[in-house]
Specification:
- By secondary structure, this protein is mostly helical.
- It has a single domain (19-309), classed as Rhodopsin 7-helix transmembrane proteins (Rhopdopsin 7-helix transmembrane proteins, Up-down Bundle).
- The chain has helices at residues 31-58, 65-93, 101-134, 139-142, 145-168, 188-192, 200-233, 238-271, 276-301, 303-325; strands at residues 8-11, 14-17, 19-22, 98-100, 180-181.
- The protein has a three-stranded mixed sheet. It has a two-stranded antiparallel ribbon with strand order 1-2.
- Helix 8 (238-271) runs antiparallel to helix 9 (276-301).
- The chain is globular and about 65 Å long.
- The termini are far apart.
- Residues 1-11 have low confidence and may be disordered.
- One of its GO terms (cellular component) is plasma membrane.
- InterPro entries: GPCR1_Superfamily_Member, GPCR_Rhodpsn, GPCR_Rhodpsn_7TM, Olfact_rcpt.
- One of its GO terms (molecular function) is odorant binding.
- It is a multi-pass membrane protein.
């Protein structure tokens, strides 16, 4: 479906389709199994991140600046997966790949908002590790629960404003080239390419968002860890270095999982021309795997969370053993 067959709503000179057609994977045999795989990642992500949220919320010992950041990341992971996967399930398992114009913009806003929130949260967590290792004596003076909460309040407000601006600017575009979106959700870029009037402002805002939430975060994180490694090099004993470095392992893994797929996608797009199906698979994996893996990484690599889980399991198992022994 390459031309507009849907009915249009004409408002002055702006032409908008009543519906968009989400193409997803086209011509791929057994593509439903891939969608089922994405649904499995969704349930793991929601359950895992919900457990992390509950543990942090209910355990007073985890009410610290670092875990406020982890709590915010888990919220962003749940938000992103809920913005992506349920809508995808509705679209492809009901054999109705149409989405209304307003629903498309709403989907675009929430997906982009939570993705940018993940990126900024990783930056805040990197700065938390930088202050904890490079300025340990000033850590509690510079970072406390109130400061971290205010930081994330500003982050939520700023991200909401910028993503809402970029989404609202889509309404000034006339979508008359086609109504087929070459992705598995209402992605900003593919919808932007459907416009047939001047979209220079939209492209500018899109580039600003990419710079603020992809390039700048990665640069800040790299600079933070350069400072951390420099500070570690001044520590005399290897035991102390490893002890300090272990506090960064979880965050480094999260950064790699978040940024590496996106970097690889950019490199692959620059080197060769990706087919639409290859692009859909790459984007879907880079968006759905990090929210699934993040809680697993934090549970496995964070001693405080592991100890709490062991205590809960021990308290549950001991009464059962006593009743069996009786």
């Amino acid at each position: 479906m390459s031309t507009l067959n849907a009915s249009f709503v004409q408002n002055m000179s702006i032409v908008r389709p009543e519906y968009f057609f989400i193409i997803g994977l086209s011509g791929v045999p057994y593509s439903r199994f891939y969608y089922i795989f994405l649904c499995i990642t969704y349930f793991i992500a929601v359950i895992g991140n919900s457990i992390v949220l509950l543990i942090i919320a209910l355990q007073p010992s985890l009410h610290s600046p670092k875990y406020i950041g982890v709590f915010n990341l888990a919220l962003a992971d749940i938000g992103e997966t809920n913005a992506l996967i349920p809508n995808m399930m509705k679209t492809f398992f009901s054999d109705s790949q149409y989405i209304s114009y307003n629903a498309c913009l709403a989907n675009m806003f929430f997906v982009n908002f939570f993705i940018t929130l993940q990126s900024v949260t990783l930056v805040v967590l990197a700065l938390d590790r930088f202050i904890a290792i490079c300025l340990p004596l000033r850590y509690h003076a510079l970072l406390n629960n109130t400061v971290m909460s205010l930081v994330f309040l500003v982050v939520w407000a700023f991200n909401t404003s910028l993503v809402a601006l970029s989404t609202s600017l889509m309404t000034r575009l006339s979508i008359c080239k086609s109504n087929v979106v070459q992705n598995f959700f209402c992605d900003y870029g593919p919808v932007l390419r459907l416009a047939c009037n001047d979209n220079s402002i939209n492209v500018l805002i899109n580039n600003i968002i990419a710079a603020l939430f992809l390039v700048a975060p990665l640069c800040i994180i790299v600079l933070s860890y350069m400072g951390i490694f420099f500070a570690l090099s001044k520590i005399t004993t290897w035991e102390a270095r490893l002890k300090a470095l272990k506090t960064c392992v979880s965050h480094l893994l999260l950064v790699g999982i978040y940024f590496l797929p996106t970097i690889c996608l950019f490199i692959a797009s620059a080197i060769t021309s990706l087919t639409p199906n290859a692009r859909v698979i790459s984007i879907s994996l880079s968006f759905t795997l990090p929210p699934m893996l993040n809680p697993i990484i934090y549970v496995l690599n964070t001693a405080e969370i592991r100890v709490l889980i062991r205590k809960v399991l021990k308290n549950r198992i001991m009464p059962i053993r006593k009743s069996i022994s009786k």
